[in-house]
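Example 3.
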Amino acid sequence: MLTYILFMLVVGSIYALLAQSLMLSWGLAGLVNLGLAGFFAVGAYASAMLTTWEQAPILVGVSVAVLAGGLAGLLVCFSTLRLRDDYLAIVTLGFAEIVRIVASNEVWLTGGTDGISGVPVMIARDTGVWFHLGTLLITVAAVILVYVLQRRLLASPWGRALRAVREDQTVASVAGKSIVRFKAQAFSLAAAIAGLAGALYGHYTSYVAPDQFQPLITIYIFLAVTAGGNARPAGAVLGAYLLVAFLEATRFLAEIAPGVTALQAAALREIAVGIGLVIVLTLRPDGLLPERSQKAPAS
Amino acid sequence: MDGASFHVEPGVVTGLIGPNGAGKTTMFNVISGLYRADSGSIRFMDHSIERLSPHKITRLGLVRTFQIARGFPKLSVFEHLMVYGAQQPGEGIGTALAGSASARQREAELAEKALSIAARLRLSHVIDNRVTALSGGQKKLLEIGRALMAEPRMILFDEPAAGVNPTLAEEIGDHLLALVSEGMTVLLIEHDMALIERICKRVIVMAQGRTLAEGSFDDVRENREVQDAYLGGRR
């Protein structure tokens, strides 16, 4: 049971990193990024390949994963500069699917659908519960680090200008802000955070395969960020942990629901997630922790 | 737009008038870099600006306002003013992450300026409100205020007094005259002829995408072509 709870907390922390990535690109920059799972995959593969096949140290693998995520973000951002809203969403979703399908089919590059197994772990596996606890501490440290950085960004003039770009990019450009620069920086930094999440995930499960990067992950993170508050780092983190707790709680509830088959129980869980989101958004339309404005200093 | 050409004198209020659909707002969009002209040239303070993007034009000191008060719905009045502040090193992502004394100092300067502009436009009591909570008149005043935050040499005002009560329209006129007395140059689109007559030293008339006449308000009022353009052709 303890192992199970620790496992869920690690998964929650990985989700919290992904949620902060989405908060930056979607909540602050207004870029509907449905390619989150793609950047997550890029990070996971980059670090897994380097550390498993090239025996690079994990720290090197993780650093390269962050860079690879950021670079992929920059690439996607510059090829979609003129797109907004739904079009951007479609293209980024396409990007994530391309990553997954290339990973499935280019066996020489990624190992194909078999994936990469034997990815080095951060804490020795034979330490039992310490393996989970140690990994949890590392992932939580990553969540806190990213959280602190995001708080700084949000409170800075950079964050203020980025929110202005999100609200109305024509007015923001007349206000003297380079739209391209702000969007590109936010998007690639967000992708780098997703890359970090991917690398940590691979070094925990010790296995990286295309199946782990289904679009459903992106949708779950959108739910988490929407419920928590999409323009507050704390909202994103809270939403991610709540989502994992909720998903697991409904697993047990579906099991004890009388007279339903396993298949129906799975469907019940999805329904419960939907109802949960509707309830949160009815009570708190801007999420649990809504966006805050910078107060004017007392004159 | 074709055959539109004019010169704006520094240090005065120049009016840009013409019937609806004459191309006045389009002219502003081209000057401010939102639309790109197929041909022709625009010069501002010895710079050719017809190929520059909007943010570069603003940084040269040429700022425009919007006819329908546009803004950032989820930002407060204070944040609107601050966003228009120029030369803030804290807008670089590296400086934002690392923090710097110069960014903090600039932030304090801009905040002080924002508070004084808010006081001047009587927006102090709503400074922490979101713009969606402002009245129509307050939105118009904020439109002026944020242009001022950019420390411009010249402002293009697109109907700053449209849809406001006569008292406020007069007050807005006073604000524009005050800006000019401080050394700024103003180009003003407005349909309120009383306001144009009161504050504009020179008036440019546009119709059907081209400039029709230029001169003092009295000169253009007497101009036959101008009368035709407004009344829809010779009777």
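The radius of gyration of chain B is 19 Å. The beta strands of chain B are 13-17, 43-44, 47-48, 62-64, 154-158, 185-189, 202-207, 210-215.
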